[in-house]
Write a structure and sequence with these properties.
Helix content: 25-40%
Number of domains: 1
Order of helices and strands: EHEHEEHEHEEH
Radius of gyration: 14 Å
Number of strands: 7
CATH class: Alpha Beta
CATH architecture: 3-Layer(aba) Sandwich
Largest sheet: 7 strands, mixed
Shape: globular
Distance between the termini: 5 Å
Structural class: alpha/beta
């Protein structure tokens, strides 16, 4: 079991940060010995990804850089620009994608995460958590996913 989990998240409206809050609180109950480190994507570095025992990346879906369906601009800058050639062989990774069903490409930022996973050589712990629309009434769903994450980290 990894001794720590680094959560790197991009949140402008607060939705992604709220989901991360729920995940962190749930993990503290399930895996009290696990050290959880949180970093905002705009503050994260390549070294943060490299030195993490396990990674959880979380982002909303945005319409920047072309058609809708992109990673949050801060997460895009981190993964696509700063860490483009980063290698994380077999590093345990999990992903949280948020989206809004008003848009055609709801939660399509998941594709950006999976592309990064493939390029860096990481190991996906479980299918991504995809949160559509407001996350505030989805705590039970988020906690159920977090239990699966805890199992994957054990």
């Amino acid at each position: 079991m990894p001794s720590s989990l680094t959560i790197i998240f991009a949140s402008i409206s607060g939705h992604t940060e709220h989901v991360v809050d729920v995940i962190e609180a749930s993990l503290k109950k399930s895996l009290p010995a696990l050290v959880v480190r949180r970093i905002r994507a705009e503050m994260a570095t390549k070294e943060d990804l490299e030195k993490a025992d396990a990674l959880l990346l979380a982002s909303g879906t945005w319409n920047t850089g072309g058609a809708e369906g992109q990673l949050n601009p801060y997460m895009h800058e981190l993964l696509i620009d700063k860490c483009k050639d980063t290698k994380l062989p077999a590093k345990p990774m999990a992903f949280v994608s948020l989206g809004d069903d008003r848009y055609y490409f709801t939660a399509r930022c998941t594709e950006g995460f999976l592309r990064f996973l493939k390029e860096c050589g990481g190991k996906q712990i479980l299918p991504p958590l995809i949160v559509v629309n407001e996350p505030y009434d989805q705590h039970e769903r988020i906690e159920r996913w977090t239990e699966k994450l805890a199992t994957g980290l054990r």
